[in-house]
């Protein structure tokens, strides 16, 4: 098991098995994000795709999601869409 000091959780946790995103951002995620935090991003990303009705293979949608992912892990956090209410 590979451990990382997870930037999102603020503690040491199990790391990802391999990079999950290409490029420099993918390497930063691999080195600084835990498996649990990546799962939290996937849930948040799904919510963004659904709420904004994004088509993930379109370049504009991919750029938006990449910016939100960077904010989610390394910035001020990715906001939920205005008026979004979780069913939890």
Describe this structure in words.
The protein is mainly alpha-helical and 88 residues long. The chain has a two-stranded antiparallel ribbon with strand order 1-2. It has one domain: Orthogonal Bundle (YggX-like), CATH 1.10.3880.10. α2 (35-51) packs across α3. It has helices at residues 23-32, 35-51, 59-74; strands spanning 3-6, 11-14.
Tell me briefly what this model is.
One of its GO terms (biological process) is cellular response to oxidative stress. By secondary structure, the protein is mostly helical.
Write the layout of secondary structure elements.
Blueprint: E1 3-6, E2 11-14, H1 23-32, H2 35-51, H3 59-74
Antiparallel strand pairs: 1-2
Helix pairs in contact: 2-3
GO molecular function: iron ion binding
Organism: marine metagenome
Pfam families: Iron_traffic
Task: List the defining traits of the structure above.
49% helix; Fe_traffick_prot_YggX_sf; two-stranded antiparallel sheet; Oxidative damage protection protein; 2 strands; 3 helices; YggX-like; 88 residues; mainly alpha; Fe_traffick_prot_YggX
């Amino acid at each position: 098991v590979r451990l990382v000091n997870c930037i999102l959780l603020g503690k040491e946790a199990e790391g990802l098995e391999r990079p999950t995103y290409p490029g420099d951002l993918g390497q930063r995620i691999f080195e600084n994000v835990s498996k649990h935090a990546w799962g939290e991003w996937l849930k948040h990303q799904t919510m963004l795709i659904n709420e904004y009705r994004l088509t993930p293979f379109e370049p504009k949608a991919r750029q938006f999601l990449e910016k939100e992912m960077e904010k989610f892990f390394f910035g001020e956090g990715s906001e939920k869409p205005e008026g979004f209410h979780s069913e939890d």
